[in-house]
Amino acid sequence: MTAAVPLRTRSRRTRGGTLSTARRREGLTALGMASPAVLLLLVFFVIPVVLAFGLAFTSARLISPTPARFVGLRNFAMLAEDPVFLRSVLNTFAFAAVVVPVQAGLALGLALLVNGRFRGTNFFRTVYFIPVVTSMVVVSIVWTFLYQKNGLLNRIIDGVTLGLVRGPDWLNDPSTSLAAIIFMSVWQGAGFHMIIWLAGLQTIPAELHEAASIDGVSRWTRFRFVTWPGLRATRTFVLITITISAFSLFTQVNVMTQGGPLDSTSTLVYQAVRSGYQQQQTAYASAISLVFFVLVLIVSLVQRRLTREKD
Amino acid sequence: MSAKSSPAVARRVPVYALRVVLALFFAFPVVFMLVSSLKPDEQIFGDLGSPRAFLPVGSLSLENYAAVFDRVPAIRFLLNSLGISAITIVLGILVNSLAAFALSRMRWPGRKLLLTVIIATLIVPFETFALPLVWWVNELPWLEVNGFSVTLTEGWLDTYRVQVLPFVANAFSIFLFHQYFQSIPKELDEAALIDGAGWFGIYRRIVLPLSGPAIATVAILTFLPAWNSYLWPLMVVQDEELRPVMVGIQYFFQLNVSWGQVMAYASMITVPVLALFLAFQRSFINSIASSGVKG
After folding, report:
1. Contact pairs from chain A to chain B, CB under 8 Å
2. A125 contacts B292? CB cut-off 8 A
3. What is the pLDDT along chain A (311 residues), one digit of tens a residue?
4. Residues near A257 by beta carbon (within 8 Å), at least 6 away in sequence
């Protein structure tokens, strides 16, 4: 097989012009092969992203008899004075602020629990992963039932506390609605990141752990000085992916609460969909999308920078 | 055994107990859903106070399922989602592996830049441009072929294609194929070229047949979001005939009919995915794990 390499170079060189012709043909074929994907990405990714920027400064509506006009920063000025939007930004941040550390931490805990060989390794991994293969819509519907005033969760609370504590009407109480969605979201997503952490754990050379255990260091020290530093790349990835998906919170809200009660669960994407789709205000929704886009970008860059500098 | 009956075992027992508790925690809502789908509503509520809520006991029947099929065209929704997922997977594998092949195994100017740009797009979530995309697909033209007459139509709303085409080209799939193709020796291409094979032949006869694991990964990672897709069809599909399962269940849920029936519908669209997952566990887990390598 290795003999083939010099053979090709020689045969091309002796025939002079063939090399550049072959090169050109290779380039054209490559372009042809890449073009379906590039074209689709152009139409369904690049253009809509550019449109998000463009439409945000116009008066575009989804279906409108009059063509869109340029309106400058009007949409953003409206956003700044829209209390529901501001509340949604706040909710989105609150959601991410809790979900990111809790889900990443729980997932890491799960990964450590099922890392290595013991009876039923595979069984436990599989069970922890079940919520991930269950669609978020289904999860939201089932949990809506669990969260009802006379639902399963309150019955369990009732039973455990012997009737001393009355559980709230989780989703219809503005003080518990977001927390309820947070809890469920962590439940659904932890298994996914457990797998990512596990993959990371497996990249840490076993010799390091062996060396540490020969030296007789405690489990915690071993985690702190062997495992944790070994998970650097995984950490960045886990944090960024959870943050982005937390910022994109929509399905749970749309199925369970429609942003209520009293906008306590309204989010950025929920507002974008409400104004852009239900009210057909494409331009306003694009402005929200743009804010969302910039936020995601800033947070990812900051996280990348932070996790890099620490090490 | 006796050699181990030391502090090591004493420490292992609580760890094992923790694993079991967590397993119950992650499984109970799904078990509850499956079990409740077989019970009449009165019994679902009656069983809530006891462990019977999680057990298939009492008067069990498939009546809830029958009622779902009576009330909504659930079969139609299932077929829609099945078709949309299948076509997205097949086209996705083709389009993305072709692009990855060109990017990883052929030499041409701009390929490095293109790969960098494609990877950079991974950070942009769909939700940031979904709304401009709704506006955009509403403006897109399409050639309607009717026998021998071809007419130009405008707007992609309420079609199957609007549920498929935006998700065919996928930066992450291209990246995965690219990584995988890198691991296949390039000498194979050289040898084939000398034997007179074209680049497309190399792709089809050499590289693709060796790429089973990458194809499986891309298929799984395309299937899950396609089957679960919700936000997008919610906005671009009004016609009940074209509705996928997740939007279908959301409307069904809003009808407020009966919890047993809602759980039946939910089970119906979850069990096939769970079954696939249990059958191809290793591939599923590996696919998810491979999505972590991009960090």
Report:
1. 295
2. no
3. 444 444 444 444 444 456 788 888 888 999 999 999 999 999 999 999 998 888 889 888 887 777 778 888 889 999 999 999 999 999 999 999 999 999 999 999 999 999 887 888 889 999 999 999 999 999 999 999 999 988 888 888 888 888 788 888 999 999 999 999 999 999 999 999 999 999 899 888 878 777 777 777 788 888 888 888 888 888 888 998 899 999 999 999 999 999 889 999 999 999 999 988 888 888 999 999 999 999 988 988 888 787 765 54
4. A171, A177, A181, A264, A265
Cβ <8 Å between A128 and B118? no
Residues 27-66 of B with CB under 8 A from A: 27, 29-30, 32-33, 45, 48-49, 53
> Residue B47 belongs to what domain range?
1-61
CATH number of the domain bearing residue B122: 1.10.3720.10
Contact B33, A138 (CB under 8 A): yes
Query: What phi and psi, each to the nearest 5 degrees, are found at residue B61?
Result: -160, 170
Q: How far is B235 from chain A (nearest CA, A)?
A: 7
For the domain A74-310, what is the CATH superfamily, name and number? MetI-like (1.10.3720.10)
d(CA B49, nearest CA chain A) in Å: 6
Q: How many CB atoms lie within 10 A of CB B188?
A: 16
Domain count, chain B: 2
pTM comes to 0.89
Contact flag B23-A124 (C-beta cutoff 8 Å): yes
Check whether residue B38 and residue B81 sit in a common domain. no
Q: Where are the domains of chain A?
A: 4-55, 74-310
Q: Which residues of A52-74 are buried (b: 16+ CB within 10 A; e: fewer)?
A: bebbbbbbbbbeeeeebeeeeeb
